[in-house]
Fold this sequence. Notes:
With about 450 residues, the protein is an alpha+beta fold. It has four domains: about 1-90, Uridine Diphospho-n-acetylenolpyruvylglucosamine Reductase, domain 2; about 95-215, Uridine Diphospho-n-acetylenolpyruvylglucosamine Reductase, domain 3; about 220-330, Alpha-Beta Plaits (2-Layer Sandwich); about 335-420, 2-Layer Sandwich (Alpha-Beta Plaits). It contains 16 helices and 18 strands. The protein has helices spanning about 1-10, 20-25, 50-60, 115-125, 140-145, 155, 160-165, 230-245, 255-265, 290-300, 315-325, 325-335, 350-365, 400-410, 425-435, 435-450; strands at about 15-20, 40-45, 65-70, 85-90, 95-100, 105-110, 125-130, 165-170, 175-180, 205-210, 215, 220-225, 250-255, 275-285, 305-310, 340-345, 370-375, 380-385. The strands form four sheets. Strands 15-12-14-13-17-18-16 form a seven-stranded antiparallel beta sheet, sandwiched between helices. It is globular and about 70 Å long. Pfam families: FAD-oxidase_C, FAD_binding_4.
Amino acid sequence: MTDLVSRLAAIVGAANLLSAEHDVAPFVTDYRGRYHGRPLAVALPASTAEVAALVRLCAAENIAIVPQGGNTSTCGAATPDGSGRQLVIALRRLNRLRAVDVPGRAITVEAGMTLAAVQQAAADAGCLFPLSLASEGSCQIGGNLATNAGGLAVLRYGTMRELALGLEVVLPDGTVLDALSSLRKDTSGLDVKQLFIGAEGQLGLITAATLKLYPQPSARATAMLAVGSAEQAIATLTALQDAFGDRLTTFEMMSEACQRLLDKYQPGKVPFFSPWALLVELSDSGAPATLQAAFENWLAHAANLLDGVLAHSEAERTRLWQLREDMSETQKRDGASIKHDIGVPSSAIPAFLAECDAALQAAFPGVRIIAFGHAGDGNLHYNISYTRPGNAALFDDEDAVNAIVYEHVYRHRGTLAAEHGVGQLKGHWLARYKDPAALALMRSVKRAIDPQGIMNPGKWL
Length: 461
């Protein structure tokens, strides 16, 4: 094994192969602290050629590989096991901007660029890269692609699957797949890049991507609105879509429990308390005053609204957005919870919430449910705490809680992983609920591309 470590170091340089316990510590625990591993080493390659050489050596020696981006996974997807025989390949040094094509509205970046850096590179070119996440300062584009990230603007722009035009991928035998392209139309066979988006590093290691850019909006109109029920929230979504079409960029929901929790840690910043708060944003080209006036006119005649705050400046817009963006961290500050990153059709959100809330309350009287998220695309963060007095045994109840939640999710033809992936956390639940034919196809693809099974083993494939 010492000889193997030396050969790995020869590829990336001794300073970029970490093996001491204190050096590998940031790479071996997931974001939530639920999964811990012990790798053979952590390699920090600086080029696609170095990644390919690492993978070829690992394939020859039958050493498993764990690809890692910003290590912001919430389900252990980028955490090695405890065997000491898995190489973590972390891509933070593979972080160059390769090209910007403004007329073609495309940007080519390496996988280790943070999402914030890609957003800034697009902005520097007068364009918009629309993916936006709370972790955008630390998550990396490779990880965003590997989990098919969505975020706050899916309603208008789609997930990473829709935003990716081309990929460069190192396959499990070390072959480099060059599928980088800015083409919007290509009917020459299967779109192989799609195999790797959402695969969580189990089929290959993404090293670069060509991504869609959009014109920078010149106008935004933002409001936080109060409604009395989930049904009224979805009715408001429909009315906004009818009135504004794809200018509706964001439609977020936060329950009253969320609002109370925010007020607990940020007193005086929540503008009102209501059964549901909606964060709504429109974006468009043209004069800001025109969009603002159209939104104000719509608000003046809208049904179902109990209250509302309309941003009249960028500072006011930022304050409204901050409340939504602080939600996850605020809940973490308040204590542990059983988290769900579920999705149901937007039209099914009211029924799901009513039925699942009732089932959880019946099973765990007094349970606290924190529900918030991207209601425009049906993706809810549905988090549970206080299943027992004192919450001391919360995770003892995790399987029972999950069984109730996922039963109701799939009753409404939803998904247990709408944004954060599956990783180690949800693989057994995926096996229970995913269509067997779909699972069989995915496993066939895995066997065909990675017959040795060295790419990110121990995850859901």
